[in-house]
Amino acid sequence: MMYSIIFNIGQINKYGKLAVFISILFLCGCSSQAHSDSASKETTIPVTLHVEDDAGLPMEGVQVTIVKAPASDQEPNTEIGEILGLTDKNGDITWDTGKKGDYSIALTKNETSVTHQVSLTKDKKDKVIPLVFKE
After folding, report:
1. Minimum mean pLDDT among 37-46, 64-73, 102-111: which range?
2. Is the model's pLDDT at 97 over the cut of 50?
3. Are 133 and 62 spatial neighbours (Cβ–Cβ below 8 Å)?
4. Domain span at residue 52?
5. Which tens digits make up the pLDDT trace of 22-35?
6. Where are the beta strands (DSSP E) in 37-91?
7. Which region is the signal sequence (predicted)?
8. How far is residue 104 from each of residues 4, 29, 91, 94, 112, measured CA to CA in Å?
9. Is 34 within a domain?
10. Same domain flag for 37 and 53
11. Does residue 2 lie in a domain region?
12. What are phi and psi of 115, to 5 degrees?
């Protein structure tokens, strides 16, 4: 069975107003989304990662890669690691994109890699997180 729909001028006008109303709602929704994105930027927890060797000496030139831990043990991790860069002469590197949660931090130097598990919480904001590179 096929239905045919015939619009008269009044119905087109009515639906035109509805389309304008929906467009306005959509635009308002987009602007509130942009606002929530800026709010999410405020929830980052900037920290400094400090890398030392077994003897407690700062390690320069260690590549630091961050991977967010999966939500559960059963869920595979599909995130690609974020390479922060190399530690400076003091063994430090700034991580200012982290948000609350659990992360794996891979430290790599001379084809040797060490992994640490770190939980970011608000109380760690602007603090130094020490990591030991044991070869």
Report:
1. 37-46
2. yes
3. yes
4. 47-132
5. 555 555 554 444 44
6. 47-52, 63-68, 82-86
7. 1-36
8. 60, 35, 18, 16, 16
9. yes
10. no
11. no
12. -115, 140
Among residues 101, 129, 125, the alpha carbon closest in space to that of 45 is found at 125
Instruction: Look at 92 and 33; give whichever has higher pLDDT.
Output: 92
Cβ burial 80-102 (10 Å sphere, 16+ → b, else e) = eeeebeebeeebebebeebeeee
Only one residue has tokens 């260690």, namely 62
Residue 1: inside a domain: no
92 Cβ neighbours under 8 A, 6+ residues apart: 48, 49, 50, 51, 58, 128
Identify whether the C-beta of residue 105 lies closer than 8 Å to the C-beta of residue 131: yes
**Among the listed residues 68, 62, 56, the one whose alpha carbon sits nearest the alpha carbon of residue 117:** 68
Q: Kindly state whether residues 102 and 127 are assigned to the same domain.
A: yes
